[in-house]
Structures
1.
Amino acid sequence: MSRDGITNAYVSSSVPAIYAYYGAYLDFSGSAPVRLWTGNKDQVFTDFSGSATYSAVGTLGSISAVSETTELAAKNIDLTLSGIPSSYISLALQNPYRGRTAAVYLFLYNEAHTSYTQTMLFRGRMDQMVIQEGSETSTITVKCESRLVDFNRPRETRYTNEYQQSVYPGDTGLEFIAGMGDKAIYWGQSAPATTVSNPGSTPGGDGNSNES
């Protein structure tokens, strides 16, 4: 839902109180996506991938401020989960995560918690995982970067047949590109005749005649 939709649904005199919660979607490779929210009990929500259960973490989870600017700029966020038993740290590192999808949702409930509306605040990719391990419990922070970061990454391409085949298999548009660098092209005239002299072809065998 857009910001205007949230305003029309809840920011009015008919709603005495609004309760805000946050949800996080983390797509780890090799396992089902991790879905967490700051509520007190598990709840089914519909995110961009479909309907699924979000596990409640209560006050153990936090999300850094999601900033907005008038400029087209990449803004990153941090997702933190604290109070995790130290024995579970290895589980957080078993599956690859870097570059995979992360999303943050805002859920707004009415005073009776009988209805809510939601909006996506952020969608990007997981970048780094920082673990602060204690004697009994630990804290995991997942740093997520905006998809706009891709605009700052160089795109290196090559005008070679090998690169063309890697992105467009079967395309022969660059098949002869390797030989074009040394190829001579004559505009408006015929190619000059090439004469190859052989020193041993004349009488005497040394290129000179044996005239006396």
2.
Amino acid sequence: RNVEAWFGDFYAVKGINVTYQEKTINAIIGPSGCGKSTYLRCLNRIHEEIEGAKTSGEVLLEGKNIYDKRVDVVDVRRRIGMVFQKPNPFPSMSIFDNVVAGLRLQGVTKKSILLETAETCLKKAALWDEVKDKINNLGTSLSGGQQQRLCIARALAVNPPVLLMDEPTSALDPIATSKIEEL
């Protein structure tokens, strides 16, 4: 409701009012520089991490405003996952550890659950067949398109009720793009 965002004095997102229905896929379309990425970052409170940035309005998830001062920002970001346009695997972590990082932060330690989740999510992200024999290699050892699919697998692993994706297939080849679109 009335979501607005600024970078210092620059008014980047102006009065967005929209309702998204559960279990739907929605696209935000507009020219380069019109505020699409900024708007997405407002939907999971990442915009406020940028120095000089601010946001106003309400973003309701399950009837609760994620901008309420009593809301745990970490929980918001766990429940509203984000895949950025540019891949951002954790540089010091293996492919496996990248995928299960969120689960570990939630206290999941059972190896069988971590292994099953990693395989399932890497399959959903159309990456498993390419990495199953090198799962312990660094995530940054992968190509750009593979890193992007790794980040998608990582976002899926915590099973967020909402998943925001900012041009997630821009670095992918047509076959990988179609697999992600199917997902």
3.
Amino acid sequence: CFAMVLMTMMATWHYVHVRRYWYELDHIVPTAELASLLEENGGVRRVPGVGLLYTELVQGIPPLFPRLVRKIPSVHAVFVFISIKHLPIPHVAAAERFLFRQVGPRARRVFRCVARYGYTDALEEPREFAAFLVDGLKMFIQEESAFAPHQEMIAAAAADDAEAASSGRTPASRSEPPAAMDAEEEKRLIDREVGRGVVYLMGEANVSAGPNSSILKRIAVNYIYTFLRKNLTEGHRALAIPNDQLLKVGITYEI
């Protein structure tokens, strides 16, 4: 009987957690819509500081973000979507801990970060984690600034060759790649925003069964899963996030 109770709880937790993940995956916001979400003429302001939004998704914009923008029409000057992933290896080197990617136009200063940990790695303290994150972000900006001119040169050369082939003229001689965008200025901006404060944002996601769900599903989702979720360690405590830097955003998913 005891084994059956444990099995029921684990199966319910796994079922609802997977359904919740797939719900978020089916309702992600395309990256192309980021610019429209952050339009200043729509009332959205960029406020000082760095915002770190935790999400399980490693692609696209989670459905929590548009809700945050609608309820609080302001986004931090530097915004990072963070996903923490535990890999089936014992240890991940510090230099390989963070994987960054630009989200949307570069001028928006919105990034995606995947923090990877092995099963023997311990999560850093919030101050140490933020310092490592900022160092990794500045290194990413430096690498992107050095790589961008070459990408632009390759694209321009391809366009020139295509135009020359269609018109029958000789392609123009190649010039040196344009100077890279001033990465040092962008890194100084990030340091300045970090000094103004780092805010951790977490979704307080509730899950409920849909109106047409069966009785068994309603019991599993609305009662068993809710009971387990309320009695397990909260995410911000597991990540050791200071309460004075934490902002929770409530959202309900119907599965």
